[in-house]
Amino acid sequence: MKKTLKAIWKIIEWHHKTIEGLLQSLADIHDEVRIQAIITCATAALERPRITVSQEDSDKETGKDPSIQDLPEVLQPALKAALCDKNASVQMAAALCQYAIQSHNPLAQDILHAALLKSNSADSWAAAQCLALEGAATYPVIKRILQQLFDKKNEDTEHRSCMLLSHLSRKTTLVHSMLAVELNSHQWKDRIVACRALSQIGGHVSLDMRHKLIQLMLSDWNKKVRQAVAQALGQMNLGKEVHDTVRVKLGQGNSQERVEALILIRELKLMTAKLLPSFLNCFSDDFMAVRRAACLAAGALQIRDEMVLECLLNLIQRDPFWKIKAFAIRALGQIGQVSPQVTDLLLWAVHYEKSPGVRLEACRSILALKLQGDRVRDTFLDVLLLENHDAVLKEIHHAMKKLNLENEGNQEMLQEIKNRIQTLTQKELLIQKIFKIEKVIGKMKEEAKRVYLQPKEGQKPLDLHTFLQETFQACEALHTKSLVTESSPGPKHKKQKSLTTCQRSTHCPGEKDCNGTLWI
Fold first, then answer.
1. Nearest 5 degrees, angle CA 41-CA 148-CA 209?
2. How many CB atoms neighbour CB 318 within 10 A?
3. Which domain holds residue 421?
4. CA dihedral for 393, 395, 397, 400, sign (positive or negative)
5. Domains held by the chain: number
6. Which residues fall in a coiled-coil region (predicted)?
7. How far apart are CA 306 and CA 318, in angstroms?
8. What is the pLDDT of residue 146?
9. Does a structural domain hold residue 107?
10. Cα dihedral sign for 27, 29, 31, 36?
11. Ranges 139-148, 228-237, 330-339: which has the least confidence
């Protein structure tokens, strides 16, 4: 045992100090030397080795204290005398040393209370810790601990402060009351720290405190604060209050309260059998914000219930707002459940939906669900022919690449078709066709007014499709003939006929007029 004890003492930095040296240092004329000696004594008292005695040794040495003495008795008078030193720093060090050796000296208490109110930050923080460990649950002590907690905001300080506050909260409700004040802080980080402290301190939580935490959880503008409050309520065994509050707001609250409840459901991943009926009603709510929040919650929780999927499919088909359709499609992709109905609806949406945002989300959900097959490839190829939105085109190419649906041969044909469509839809060509239609329709109206045509037997009425087809075929034929005539040059010498001899008349062939002209 002596060898073990010797080995333990050797690893301590102050083991080489002697009692005579410490007594000389405590009586030195320099303040720094006296303070260093007091610190050495306090460190030795705190870090002294303690021996765990086995059951056999305890039976043999019954009544003996297994721990080593804090400090030699010869040092005690000098340390107590330091409490009355003319230097305030020496007095503070001596007071801390008295707490280290657990002497409960009244003079040391008075020094620490004074340091708590008037000394610098380091001394007041040390005084607050010593007084808190002794059980002094007073307002100055708690205030100083909270000040350190909210000023430093590091893990070590938070752990130490919460440990002290937990020790004091068993004696007074002042700790919870002062933390409740911090829940109203304009700094969102302070509100988070207060929530974490409340969850670590424990103890009895008043009804007003519960209501305040639930209010923060529902209505605080910062997402991190809401999450911290929810976690604190869970660690404080107040999950039932959270569930009941969400259920009431979801079923009986106004539109804003329903949105807040749905946001909380999404963030806490909370869903029970009691919440499900009210949750399903939110998909058919009159307010767009409620339906949007319901879609986001369904996607975040990845609820695969058939009734939830049916509500999402109904929104995609019937909701009048394109954003709700997009959020419902996104939720289907997040849920990850594939069915023939889901596949049909997504392919229809990416092909025929009017809004680019809906088509974009449909393409992303198809990729998320990893839909494969010739039908998906054919739908993408059809969409590439007519799609003019850059974001949708980019997403479709990305999806085809990820799903291995690319086909180079088809890509060349698609590009050729798109070029042809672009040529045919030029502005000048469309204007010419419109003018031609107007001209032909005007001519038909004039003929109908002035010329009577005997209807032929079995003749069908001319429909619009046939009329337009004949009109444009005639235009194309005339255009082609003119191109051929211009491209093939005729003979240089043509036989010219006079206009007089080439005109058609109502005269009979072979007759001569008064001028002797023969009509053909």
1. 130
2. 10
3. 344-436
4. negative
5. 1
6. 400-427
7. 18
8. 94
9. no
10. negative
11. 228-237
In a domain, 382, yes or no: yes
| pLDDT, position 73 | 81
Q: What is the pLDDT of residues 182-206, one digit of tens each?
A: 999 999 999 999 999 999 988 788 8
Q: Is the pLDDT of residue 471 over 50?
A: yes
Q: How far apart are CA 378 and CA 382, in angstroms?
A: 6
pLDDT of 382 > 70? The answer is yes
**CA distances to 46, 52, 89, 210, 325 from 311, in Å:** 66, 67, 73, 35, 11
Tell me the C-alpha distance between 215 and 361, whole Å: 35
CA angle 479, 485, 486 (to 5 degrees): 90
Residues with Cβ within 8 Å of 109's Cβ and at least 6 positions away in sequence, in order, are 95, 131, 134
Q: How far is residue 135's CA from residue 60's CA, in Å, rounded to a whole number?
A: 36
Structure tokens belonging to residue 277:
């009926």
Is residue 294 scored above 90 in pLDDT?
Answer: yes
pLDDT attached to residue 262: 92
- What's the pLDDT band for 476 if we cut at 50, 70, 90? low
What average pLDDT does the segment 389-411 reach? Answer: 81
Residue 402 belongs to a domain: yes
pLDDT at 388 over 60: yes
**3-state SS assignment for residue 29:** coil
pLDDT at residue 9, rounded to an integer:
33
Q: Is 213 exposed, middle or buried (0-12, 13-18, 19+ CB in 10 A)?
A: buried
- Tell me the pLDDT of the chain averaged across its residues: 80
Q: Supply 201's token pair.
A: 């301190």
Examine the pLDDT at 491 and tell me if it is beyond 50.
no
User: Domain for residue 30, yes or no?
Assistant: no
Question: Residues 329, 331, 337, 343: what is their CA dihedral angle, to the nearest 10 degrees?
Answer: 0
d(CA 369, CA 342): 10
Cross-strand pairs, 518: 512
Question: For residue 305, which of 196, 117, 313 has the smallest C-alpha distance?
Answer: 313
pLDDT (average), residues 50-56: 50
Burial (0-12, 13-18, 19+ Cβ within 10 Å), 449? exposed
Q: Please give the Cα distance from 132 to 126 (Å, whole number).
A: 10
Cα–Cα dist 164/170, whole Å: 11
User: Could you tell me the two tokens for 229?
Assistant: 């409050």
Q: Six-digit token pair at 28?
A: 């030195």
* CA dihedral for 188, 189, 192, 198, sign (positive or negative): negative
